[in-house]
Structures are given as structure tokens and as C-alpha cells.
Amino acid sequence: MSTFRYSGSSFYDGDKPVQILSGAIHYFRVVPQYWEDRLLKLKHCGLNTVETYVPWNWHEPKKGQFNFEGMADLVRFIDLAGKLGLYVIVRPSPYICAEWEFGGLPAWLLEDSNMRLRCSYKPFLDHVDDYYDVLLPKLKPLLCTQGGPIIALQIENEFGSYGSDKVYLNYIHDAMVRRGMDVLLFTSDGPEDSMLQGGMVDGVLATVNFGSRAEEAFDKLREYQPDGPLMCMEFWNGWFDHWREEHHTRSAADAALVLDDMLRQGASVNFYMFHGGTNFGFYNGANGHVKDSYEPTVTSYDYDALLSESGEPTAKYHAVRDVIAKYKTVDAAELPAPLPKKDYGTVVMTQQATLATNLERISKPVRSAYTETMEKLGQDFGFIQYDTFIPGPRSQNKLYIQELRDRALVFLDGEYAGTVDRCESDTTIEFEVPDKGQHLSLLVENMGRVNYGPYLKDSKGITEGVRFGLQFLSDWTMYPLPLNDLSGLEFQALERQNAKNGPAFYRGEFFAEEPADTFIRLEGWTKGIVFVNGFNLGHYWDQGPQKTLYVPGPLLKQGQNEIVVFELYRCVAPEIRLQDQPDLG
């Protein structure tokens, strides 16, 4: 057992001074079979600590239903890090940001229309208590005070960027203490007056997050915390990507220069990220800092980090290791051998199942006079289709989808009429309704809940209503499509010349003599989701910047493997390419 603490300007493990050199690896963005590989590479880089967030929605996807297995086996990840000789910093806040869906908050919170987030609203605090009653007892045996590797826990996350409710912050602090979290507790915020004023907790170590101008950031921290060690809890050595943007990069030399500046001042540092990993499934978040702004994050969380998305050391890795070697002895052990990567060639889709003919096979319809959000229907992710009938005749008018979240494909009598996007306010769909009337279908895609900023409360689907002209339309049949079970699909044989446009599932197989990492290139496809052996890899979109989807080798089987592509629009040819290198755009 040990006590990890700070005194004066230094951290101590017992009586031994420690400079924390940490890197962020999110267990929930990496398949468990690769955890050890990533941790060994972290240690080899000269780091002594691994840091991870804990996303609430990953562990309690439905109220009262908890998951701590597979990619959610937090205890195994922490225990493995400890066995490899690493300290562990855990950030189990109710909210984590992390460019993760809803900032880690579970979607079911939004079933309550009155819910208030990240504040001392009792129903929210009650849910946090229920979660902590399950989560924190799992962490207690892993605390350094119990002989484990966890040296510190975070209270909330960058709260000063969101609010100023000190009653709430102290409640979270006390909730941890009451449950036996007797290790170092800390906060982390941007190095600005308002952020530190809003995010600090009396008697708790404050740390700061930044990507440059280290001396300036630490000077600001010292104005509010004259004593205590200096620590950058998030050194942003790279950045994340949104759809329809350029891929973000930062030079290795620039990141190394800022690190050198911090280490020269004797500061501790946590690289955000050391290894980014992947936003598998529907777990990517989105930014929405101002009203009517919405920027969904891509599937890859490569982050231009020290390790690539597939875990390979980058130029930044070697540059950082060289800087650390100036100040301490780095691990002399050899790097783990590169994981195998394969080019499996072209996979032709041989079967197709259109959404229109399979809707009731994979969804249970719900009738209502008005449109409901996903959350009100108990749905967290995916798509939802809204169907109604407009009596005729009616003269030409505009279709309005009020407060759409996030993107709707519009169909009139089954024919595609256009797409409405919450970010493209100038899109107009107008039509006449014939004497016989017209069926209206709206296939709405949830592209990820906002994970940062004042517009965090981001319900999905149609959140207000649908109008034709000034009149709200009624009598809706809604089809939730979380796409977590595709076993009901009925596929038909597909010949290239007979492929149908519109929302459809395409199925193909390929043989893997030896399972290895690979990358799916979807040249000629438009927008959708890819499943490999039933595992949801995440979104693709021809808007870029991401051009390939990463497939970790452990998702493949020796022998035949199934790929299902859910394409919303069309593909030039029903085939994909499995290559041995990524293309980030």
C-alpha cells in the first residue's frame, strides 16, 4: 500500500518525489486484445502513468442495466496497467466530454423533459448516486491506498467551461469521499479566469488543460493556486476531426517543443491523447458551441496522437521520447512488434435488403398523434423513421421539420425527395399533394449528441413537429431503428446491374486465412454504417475527411467473415476494398 500525495510543488509516492508523465488511452476506444500492446508502448515512451476517462453511457446504457465486460471491463484495464508497473489516473466524472457521445452522459436522462444536467438538480444527482453506487466500489480495491495502481481521481471535467454551481461540484466531491475514494482528488479546467473560478473546488488540487503557451497557462493557475505541483492534465498534442473538415495535424517538432518547456519547469503532464483509438458504433460526439451550430465528430479518433488509430508509433512518439530522455531514463526494452495488417482485396456485395421492405422486420412501430423524440421512445442511437399520410389535394407548399436532430431523408410515396440537415437552413423541399393524397416518410439519422458547451441537452429525432405550410401534420407511425439487431433482415441475391438506390443493407463475405488489422475503403459509397461480423464499426461519409474505417484484427475470424453496409443513398458499385493502410484524407 502507498499514499500518493503532494506537498509544496511536488507529488510524492510515500517519501519518493514523482513527476507524473502520463498518457491518455481510453479502454472504451480500443479492443481489449490490444490493451497490453498500447500500454507497453506508453511505458516504452518513458511515461509512468496512464489516464482514462470513464463514460457513464458505456457502463449504464439503460437505466439500472450495467455493463463491465469486454470493452467495458474497466477493472481489467486498470489491473493490467498496474501489473505493467504503471500508475493510473481515472476520471470517472458523470460528464467526460472526450468528443464522446453526449459527453458520456446516458441518453436515457433525456426521457425526462425537465432534466437539468451537470448541476445540483436532485433527479440528476439521484441518477449519479445510483451510478456511483455501482462504479466506485469497483474502483476502491484498485486505489493506491488499497495496494492498487490508481493514484488520483477527477471531480467532474472542465466544469468551469460549462457552469458555476459549486453546490454541485462539492456534491460530486463528497459523493466520492463517502464511498471511500481516499486518493488524491483533482479538477481540470482551461487556464482562464472564468474557467478556474467556475471549476475549482476548495481544498482540491487544480490542474489545467492546454496545447501551447505553457508558461502563460501555469502563471494563470498560480494566480488561483499559489502552492501545489504544476500539472497539465490535458496536453493537446493533436486534435480531432469533424465531418466536412480537413484532417487536423500538428507537427512532432512543435508538440515536442511545448513538452520540453513544461518539463524544464518541473511540471507534470498528461498527453491528451497518447493513443486516440476509434469511436466505434454510434459513440462519436459532436460540437455545438453556439445555437444552430452542429459539427459531428468522425469515427476515427486518431487525434494525430503519439500512436496512430491502429496503434503504430508516429514521428510524434519518437520526438516525445527523445525529449523525455533529456530529463529521465526511459524504458530500454524493445517496442512490441508491429501488429500484422492485411490487404484482403476487394469484397463484392452479393446480397441486398432494402429498408422499405424490411422495416417491420427490424423495428416495432409506435403510433402517436405527434412526433416523439428517440429518447421518449426508449431509443438511444441510430435512426428513426416517421411516416404519415397527407390528404389531398393541396397546392404547392414547403415542408418544415421543426428542431430536426440531426438529418432527415424525405420520401414522398416512397420516392426520394431530398435531405434536410439541421446545419443547412437554406434547404427547401416543396411539393403539391395530389387528389389521392400522399405518403410522407422521414428517415432521421442521429449523428451524435453534442458533447461540449451550453447546448449539451441534445435530444434526437424530430423534437418539435412537422408542418406542411403552417399546418402541423399528425397521425404518425414511428419506427425506431437502433440497428443493434439485424437478424430480422431478409436479403435477396444482388446483381450489380440490379442494385437499388435508397436506404438499403448490402451483404458480402471475405475469407481471412489469418485475421489481422485491415482498413475498409468505401470509394463510390455515399453515407452510412458498416458492420463486420455484427460489430458496428461506425459512420462513413464521402464528405470526408475520413476515407477508411479501421477494423481491428480481433473482430475477424479465421475463415469466412461477414460485412454488412447500411447505405443511405447510393453506391457506384456494390463493392468495398480491404487494404493494409488507412487513408485519413
UniProtKB/TrEMBL annotation:
Reactions listed under catalytic activity: Hydrolysis of terminal non-reducing beta-D-galactose residues in beta-D-galactosides
Domain Beta-galactosidase galactose-binding: from-to ranges: 503-561
Active site, UniProt feature: 158, 234
EC number annotated for this UniProt entry: 3.2.1.23
Keyword entries, A-Z: Glycoprotein, Glycosidase, Hydrolase, Signal
Enzyme class: hydrolase
Xref: PROSITE patterns: GLYCOSYL_HYDROL_F35
InterPro entries, per the entry: B-gal_1-like, BetaGal1-like_ABD1, BetaGal_gal-bd, Galactose-bd-like_sf, GH, Gly_Hdrlase_35_cat, Glyco_hydro_35_CS, Glycoside_Hdrlase_35
Record GO biological process: carbohydrate metabolic process
Classification via Pfam families: BetaGal_ABD_1 (PF21317), BetaGal_gal-bd (PF21467), Glyco_hydro_35 (PF01301)
Residues in Glycoside hydrolase 35 catalytic domain copies: 12-326
Domain Beta-galactosidase 1-like first all-beta: 373-482
GO molecular function: beta-galactosidase activity
Signal peptide feature range: none
Family the UniProt entry places it in: Belongs to the glycosyl hydrolase 35 family.
Protein name (record): beta-galactosidase
Organism name: Paenibacillus dendrobii
